[in-house]
Amino acid sequence: xxxxxxxxxxxxxxxxxxxxxxxxxxxxxxxxxxxxxxxxxxxxxxxxxxxxxxxxxxxxxxxxxxxxxxxxxxxxxxxxxxxxxxxxxxxxxxxxxxxxxxxxxxxxxxxxxxxxxxxxxxxxxxxxxxxxxxxxxxxxxxxxxxxxxxxxxxxxxxxxxxxxxxxxxxxxxxxxxxxxxxxxxxxxxxxxxxxxxxxxxxxxxxxxxxxxxxxxxxxxxxxxxxxxxxxxxxxxxxxxxxxxxxxxxxxxxxxxxxxxxxxxxxxxxxxxxxxxxxxxxxxxxxxxxxxxxxxxxx
Length: 298
Description:
By secondary structure, this protein is mostly helical. The chain has helices at residues 2-37, 41-47, 59-65, 68-101, 108-120, 125-135, 147-150, 154-167, 170-178, 183-194, 196-212, 215-220, 229-245, 247-250, 263-293. It contains 15 helices and no strands.
């Protein structure tokens, strides 16, 4: 008995050590990102990245702060697009996935194949661009940040359908129908409340997609006033690189040697990640559960 207890303690100690190492492996890169963003540009170029830099500096953040009004507006646009896009995308995903989870749906298998087919093939960038600009006319509108990512991700639909199929008892739905409940009442009063972990998981995934999206702004926006935070920060990096590349032509008006070309990339990554880091703890308890119970099953 004592030997078994001793082996259990050794096993637990090994698991604790492994978990601690995994935590350090996850946290260390982010700490390095923060310290690099607070390191003097010359020190970064000379010594590279370090957890304890030789010289500290706020120049990267001060450079970003000089564009405070632009940053504030871009944050507002990004928050608005993320909230609206995530809400509408989740609604569309749920209302598509729920019928696919019902065995009595006549066209269940053709519709499921249609969804799965879109995971394998798409029309390509040029036809997609022409459709959105010539048919939907989203170029240089706020819808350029919303619509291209709004048309549901097939993987999310399959995850939600699998969750409904595996975790919502058919007997519960049948009982609700016997009591006179319609499909919409069953969906929003019974199915959705029982699916909070999966919905929270998808909300986090879809929200991250909207928050980090910069390709749609690159493709469909030329008006800076409509840029999201990712597009604004990406433009800052491009501007700094342009100024340093063309140092001879701007040397008379600007000391390009002091531009934080490396540090600003780190600062931009920090600014872009902070809001997600603040939101993630509220979704964490649902995220793991939603991933486990919502796994795609054969």
